[in-house]
Specification:
Blueprint: H1 2-22, H2 26-47, H3 60-69, H4 99-104, H5 137-140, E1 146-147, H6 158-173, E2 177-184, H7 191-211, E3 219-225, H8 236-242, E4 244-251
Length: 252
């Protein structure tokens, strides 16, 4: 008797499950099967340390774009996702601590000078005609070097901020003065990354000068990356002095 009851209940459950599954389309079942297989595969890969490059997920759309990318599986691997709005590059590391600083300056970065020094038809000579202000007594005390923390383009410290203020004040009072802002880094890191970091430092200082009233047509920026260290020794003190922005000045 008990066996017959058990078989009855088992058959009833089977019928109910069958009816419920009929309500789902073949496409739904296939999508669920793919999703389950995809995420199980990711979990197994993660256990073996094969979950691909890390990504910073800052919004729902970021997460969805990563998840959708797994539809493009090829050869057991996953394609990279491009993030043009987050600054992510497959081969470069962008310091997170500088993102807010760069975002706040994005509007001013559009204020490019009308002339490029040294180009044909430009009234401003090339950078080779610009002088080191430390060799000019009346300028040496104003155009001082700006120093940076490791892997950062943020201008910090009262001394650095006062230097930028003094330079801006001088350039407002002397509109025939033109300045190249030179961005430098220490030797650590790949060349391409250091050139980009030097550019962020130079452009950041340029933008701060513009925000204090300097004519955008009078200030230019260039990056040398790690190619022009002032200290050759490989120690922290030397690296700190190489993470800098220098100035070159031309008076017309």
């Amino acid at each position: 008797m008990r066996t017959r009851n058990f078989l009855f209940y088992f058959a009833a459950i089977g019928i109910i499950c069958t009816l419920q599954s009929c309500a789902r389309t073949g496409g739904d079942v296939w999508d669920d099967t793919k999703s389950a297989g995809r995420h199980v595969g990711r979990g197994v890969g993660a256990l073996g340390g094969k979950n691909g490059d890390s990504r910073q997920v800052r919004s729902k759309s970021d997460f969805e774009s990563i998840d959708d990318n797994f539809e493009n599986e090829q050869g057991g691997g996953f394609q990279d996702v491009d993030y043009p709005d987050t600054g992510y590059q497959a081969t470069d590391y962008v310091p997170l601590q500088d993102q807010c600083n760069e975002a706040s300056m994005a509007e001013m970065q559009s204020q490019q000078p009308r002339e490029t020094p040294g180009e044909a038809g430009s009234s401003i000579p090339g950078i080779e005609a610009f002088r080191d202000p430390s060799t000019i007594p009346e300028l040496a005390g104003t155009f001082r070097t700006i120093f940076f923390d490791y892997d950062s383009s943020l201008v910090k410290g009262q001394v650095n901020l006062q230097t930028i203020h003094n330079i801006a004040e001088y350039m407002r009072r002397n509109p025939n003065t033109y300045v190249f802002v030179e961005g430098h880094t220490d030797e650590r890191g790949p060349q391409a990354y250091n050139l980009a970091l030097g550019s962020r430092r130079g452009n950041g200082v340029r933008n701060m000068l513009i925000s204090e009233g300097v004519n955008p047509d009078n200030v230019f920026s260039v990056s040398y990356g790690k190619e022009r260290p002032v200290i050759m020794e490989r120690h922290e003190e030397g690296w700190a002095k190489n993470r800098r922005v220098d100035f070159k000045v031309y008076v017309r």
